[in-house]
């Protein structure tokens, strides 16, 4: 569970860390995606040049979008931890819903509401899969018990 994770930075710093990590993921993934897309959409003989141009122009845009999402999500996650004084999956689910709603808020209440529900459901699925995997990989209580002591030797 997330509450026992001591390897993460404290809350103010995790926001910058997550935003930067999300930007890098988006920029690298977006660069690869747009390189392929630019190569496919370029005329014969200009494939490499078109691929590099598409990668350079669109890759950072996708990275910025990922960075904004990661920063907002971490901000809301930290806010939920501070408000609730707990670290549990509900913080991430609420942060996903708030992030989805805020990012779609320019489209009006209906769009923001749909995006908030989608963000909450998506994070609930992610948290559920994470909990399921951790339960499957956790040692059973029998495996955690120490072995019985050896019988006393009879002399």
Automatic annotation (TrEMBL):
Citing just one GO molecular function, the answer is: protein transmembrane transporter activity
The protein's topology relative to the membrane is: Multi-pass membrane protein
Transmembrane domains' residue ranges? 115-136
Coiled coil stretches, renumbered = none
For the biological process aspect of GO, one term held by this record is:
protein import into mitochondrial matrix
* PANTHER family attached to this UniProt entry: AT05822P-RELATED, MITOCHONDRIAL IMPORT INNER MEMBRANE TRANSLOCASE SUBUNIT TIM-17
Q: Which family does it belong to?
A: Belongs to the Tim17/Tim22/Tim23 family.
What is the protein name given in its UniProt record?
Mitochondrial import inner membrane translocase subunit tim17
Q: Which organism is it from?
A: Smittium mucronatum
